[in-house]
Amino acid sequence: MADAAWRWRAAVPGDLAGIRALFDAVKQGERPLAHDQWRFFGRADEPAVLAVGEDDEGIAGLNALLPTEAVLDGRRFKACQSIDTMVHPRARGRGLFGLLAAKARDMAAARGIEVVYGFPNQTSLPMFMKSQGFQYLGNSPRHVRWLRPSVRKPGLVGTLLDRVADLLPHGGARGWDVSPEPPAEHELAALLDARAPPPPGECRIHRSPAELHWRYAPEAAMGYEWLTARRGGRAAAACVWGMRDPSWGPRANKRAGLMELLGSNRDGLSAALAAAIDRARGAGAWRLEAICSRGDLLPLLRRAYFLSGGTIPFVARGCGSDAPPPSRWATITGDFDGY
Fold this sequence. Notes:
alpha+beta; 27% helix; Aminopeptidase
């Protein structure tokens, strides 16, 4: 049970300094200011769900959910991802974690959001399951395309591995014009309309143009880059990759993420993916990774020599009710903590 001394409320933009101080106390280092402004208060059409807990010393806890939309068997519904769940060291063991999680879900339910999902680390997974009623739905596989293995294995062996990585095919198809720019509005709408429906019983995230524009905005400080594959002047596929920019300081670790693969033309998708590999390598990334459980995209990753890089737990539960969440999800992202 939560300590009676806690006060909770919805966060407002004026709380940003307190939230950032909380992050620093928990993680020992701040994110770029522009990133946090974008993350918490940068989306006007579907603002983040933010519940903060306070005591006399200020903000002591945060539970943050980012809204999106999902689709299951043709039905679209509101969902959200659990991103930041933080409790100050002075407040741990006093019920604040559970209080804020429950309040944030109630706030989400009041906005019509039905399901919350997340990628907890192994340390927090038991808390999500035991005290918050999340269902563990398996692990999401991580796929890694090595670009400069010498970062992990220095010396002669690493140098040789770098050369091998440079020589590996990346699956690109010929005859495509891939440009480092987002699709035009009508092209993006067409790519989203061309999405193949998920297999029966499989739940997927169903992004809108407005969400994509916010998600990959420069304000995120993640260096997101769109790559659009065209043939005959017509956009047939697009992808997004990104990597923390220098404003992250020591946290700019040169690990790049493959965020999106949009479109139904497989050759176009291969061309866009090959360009992402080249662009990430040219930007100095030592690996490009994707957290992907989409069966339709896995052959593209394998063809481009993405290798297994472990797994990440995936959990979900209902918001405002005990209704079970969809049991089978298929997702793709490259920086699940960047949502």
